[in-house]
Amino acid sequence: MSIYFTKNFQRAFGTFPLTGDALRHALELALDAGYRAIDTAQLYKNEQDVGATLETSGIPADDLLLTTKVMHTHFTESQFLDSVKRSLDHLKRDRVDVLLLHWPPADGDVQPSLALLREAQLLGLTQHIGVSNYTAAMMRTAKALLDVPLVVNQVEFHPLLNQSVLLAAAQETGIPLSSYCSVARGLVFQEQLLRDIAQKTGKTVAQVTLRWILQQGVSVTTMSTSAANLRNNYAIDDFTLSAEDMATIDTLTHSCVRIVDSKKVPWAPVWDTPERA
Ligand SMILES: NC(=O)c1ccc[n+]([C@@H]2O[C@H](COP(=O)([O-])OP(=O)(O)OC[C@H]3O[C@@H](n4cnc5c(N)ncnc54)[C@H](OP(=O)(O)O)[C@@H]3O)[C@@H](O)[C@H]2O)c1
To answer: Per the domain annotation, does 97 fall within a domain?
Structure first.
């Protein structure tokens, strides 16, 4: 079973783009709402704020699932491990629970950075290892190269994007998916179809959206700075969407809305689309 589906870690609080007081305040609200899985990254420049806030929260490290990600510019022999040690220093930890490669390398050759990631694990700097923004082909290559499981591929996942190719690769490789941009940075709230299902089920559009993600075996990462939205996004384990509602929401995936595209991230890989499968 995915580590993110143990305890209550299937709902993670994402910390991008928050830093400083805004981060501290939102993270405190998230911990109050019940979040125990926390997602940060070297790229977010907030690991120090995350570390300080978690330390003062008094929540035992064993009750948390702390994930950070190594920047692709640190994927060299000389920089990788030092950058992870710096992250641990910022996070005030001897090791993180999950260490991810934030992006695949620009040349598409995943072997060298996966070897460095595995080395970090063997040195005890992280309990689990995973990746982010990997394509289906990269997931298969990683599975073949590694002698331990990758616990996650964190990818953009919401009702306005068809990720059936990655879902199939997750089944095939045993590498579970986790979502980011889970509410498509607010775009899902404009969808009448989701509003109708929300009204029918007595839930909010955010809850219906996140539940649709969870019911596909994909753990959820969301960010909010609002106490009400955080509580709302967390309260998604007391209802089930019918197969009919799931299928209705599936029809929205034809919209092909990608938030994190190559305009925002020039080093992004060529994404999988159902036609390319
Ligand atoms: N691995 C990667 O490459 C990658 C890329 C992007 C993101 N991520 C991770 O995923 C996390 C989440 O993704 P994201 O923040 O980009 O997108 P998101 O969760 O889809 O959108 C966040 C936005 O949605 C709003 N929102 C959240 N819940 C809401 C609700 N119930 N009702 C109304 N508005 C709501 C928030 O505003 P309010 O503050 O007003 O609630 C915030 O502006 C990030 O924080 C980061 O940790 C990873």
So the answer is: yes
For the Cβ of 221 lying below 6 angstroms from any atom of ligand 1, the answer is: yes
Instruction: Name the residues annotated as catalytic.
Output: 44
Ligand 1 pocket test, candidate residues 46, 181, 191, 204, most atoms within 8 A of CB: 181
CA–centroid distance, residue 15 to ligand 1 (Å): 8
207: in domain: no
Helix (H) / strand (E) containing 219: strand 219-222
pLDDT in tens, 51-107: 999 999 999 999 999 999 999 999 999 999 999 999 999 999 999 999 999 999 999
Question: CB-based contacts of 187: which residues, under 8 Å, 6+ apart?
Answer: 158, 160, 257, 259
Domain of residue 80, CATH code: 3.20.20.100
3-class DSSP assignment, residue 215: coil
Residues 156, 220: Cα–Cα separation, whole Å: 10
At residue 250, the pLDDT reads: 98
pLDDT recorded at residue 276 = 47
Range of the domain at 151: 3-185+218-235+256-263
At 107-166, the pLDDT tens digits run 999 999 999 999 999 999 999 999 999 999 999 999 999 999 999 999 999 999 999 999
Q: Is 27 in the pocket of ligand 1 (CB under 6 A)?
A: no
In a domain, 59, yes or no: yes
Q: Is 121 in the pocket of ligand 1 (CB under 6 A)?
A: no
The answer, yes or no, to whether any atom of ligand 1 lies below 6 A from the CB of 181, is yes
Distance (Å, rounded) from C-alpha 124 to C-alpha 120? Answer: 7
Question: What is the distance in A from the centroid of ligand 1 to the CA of 93?
Answer: 25
